Amino acid sequence: IRIMEKQFVSHRPPLYVEWWYFHFAASNGSAINLVLHETDIFGLQDRPYLSLSILLPGRSPRYFRCELDRIMVSGGRSLLDGKLGLISDEDDRIIIDVRPSDECHFSAEMIKLAGPIAIENGYIYRNEATGQASHWVIRVPHAVFTATLRLGDELIRLEGTAYHDHQWGDFLIQDYVSDWVWGHFSNEQIAFTFFQILAQNGKFISRLALVSEEGRFTGTVLNTNYLDTLISIQSPHNFADFLSIGFLFNQVDVRFKVSPSQLMRSRLNEQHHRVQASYLRWATQASLDGACGPHGLYGISEYIRIRPTAYGSHYQSKHYQHHFRHSDSSHLAHRSAL
């Protein structure tokens, strides 16, 4: 995977997106997201930056962002090394020490419990005619962590499970995505990651990975009501209910709840070049039942909605619902990846 990342990342074309994503889910319900951006999600800002989202139980979410002089990737090891902190990827752990502002200092050690995963050779989407592609690899699908978080004069100690992935490509997401959902849930024994995209051509792209002490399973077929539910809602940030994901012919079922009180980030109807986009990220808990036994899991999930600005809100609420429901891929249990 490191060779693959270096091969693609070392030749950046003018249109390019890239970020490294870390999340930390603590057993007390706290959640932290750290994202190292080479670009923003739409490839419109090419100045590197670091973002840190924090949700502590009973408190309002906090968000910190700081621009970086550079992101240094040397053999896939050192992701950040400078005045704002250090992110070092070692063989068995990742060391993080970042100060995105004078008010905030986050220091963590991730102990890796499983090796990296590249489903479908790391491709999410590929245009055979142009060679453009979007890539996603799970660098650390399962980890435990200990951390300290300083907010002002308050020092908070955290421990729980963690996750790390890397996404990049020269196919901008606004050029092929209409909706996507993603999530990761884990405890010390098991970790589950899923990703599903409704592409603008009406096709579905699905990815899943299940990692435990007994081994790992990866696949490209999901049975879920996640996209069906959120795509039909005009205000998904107000949604409050349970969602479910089934796989292995529904032998395994993951169920979790999202609600406004669980939102870590809520960016609604932002206007970008040619598109309007919304992004939601929830901290949540899940139950996993089935062939691998019952488990209570902690984690994070997100939803992204992208619409062409030329059509406005009527297009969002009517056209996409119709397109979704009448697509030839509407039978979720039989969807296959592109």
Describe this structure in words.
The protein has 338 residues and is mainly beta. It has helices at residues 2-9, 226-231, 312-325, and strands at residues 17-26, 31-37, 49-55, 62-67, 78-82, 85-89, 93-101, 104-112, 123-126, 133-151, 154-169, 177-186, 190-199, 204-212, 215-219, 223-224, 241-247, 252-258, 263-272, 275-290, 295-308. Strands 1, 2, 3, 4, 5, 6, 7, 8, 9, 10 and 11 form an eleven-stranded antiparallel sheet that branches. Strands 12, 13, 14, 15, 16, 17, 18, 19, 20 and 21 form a ten-stranded antiparallel sheet that branches. The longest helix is centred in the last third of the chain and has 14 residues, at 312-325. The chain is globular.
List the helices and strands and how they pair.
Blueprint: H1 2-9, E1 17-26, E2 31-37, E3 49-55, E4 62-67, E5 78-82, E6 85-89, E7 93-101, E8 104-112, E9 123-126, E10 133-151, E11 154-169, E12 177-186, E13 190-199, E14 204-212, E15 215-219, E16 223-224, H2 226-231, E17 241-247, E18 252-258, E19 263-272, E20 275-290, E21 295-308, H3 312-325
